[in-house]
Amino acid sequence: MGHAIQDVVSPIRMRLAQRIGWAIVWLALAAISINFLLTVHGKYSHLDPSAYTMFWSRRGWLWTHLGGGALTVVLGPLQFLTRWPRAFPRLHRWTGRIYMVGMLIACAGATGLIATSPAPFEIRSAFAATALTWLTTALVALIAIHRGRVAPHRNWMTRNYLVTLSPITFRILLQALIALELPPSPTTIAILLWLSWLLPLLVYEGAYRIVDLLRVSPAHPARMGARSSPAST
What we know:
By secondary structure, this protein is mostly helical. It contains 10 helices and no strands.
């Protein structure tokens, strides 16, 4: 009897711990994202060439990118609320569509910025790889949901949102580099751009595998006990 209660309580505790953990993660991401949006959009809120520097002649592409990106950063967390899709499926779908439109707008702005950028090839190619990864993860997520595969859709949209946050991750990595008094050369900047989405994806994949193992492992003792109980009687 005690083992049966323990077998039931353990998964409940695991789910509760998982929900609390994800809540902390999303709250932290929300705080960092809001700070990033206020800082970046505040910087370019005044039409001043000294604030825009090299983006002054390309401010149209810049604002296209920032406007679409702001939509995705703000709407992204709403899509991952546990009860949101079940309670408001139509609203969830429309919010997702607006998110996708925002992503396409941001990618259009990014394409214009990359095409007109005087930056070295390694930096432009790193930006292009980020945009391509962003679009690819969204496409795979869309294919999954059109096939009725909800779990893969959710996982791929999580990956997509981690790429959405790559500018914020890049900013954190760049500040860490400056704090270490290391010179931000073009090659270093390109490496940070790649790491800004590769590192979060690697961390997510590792955490996803660990959670899967934890979900499976409690079932093994129960199955073993079920198999051995007839013999013991």
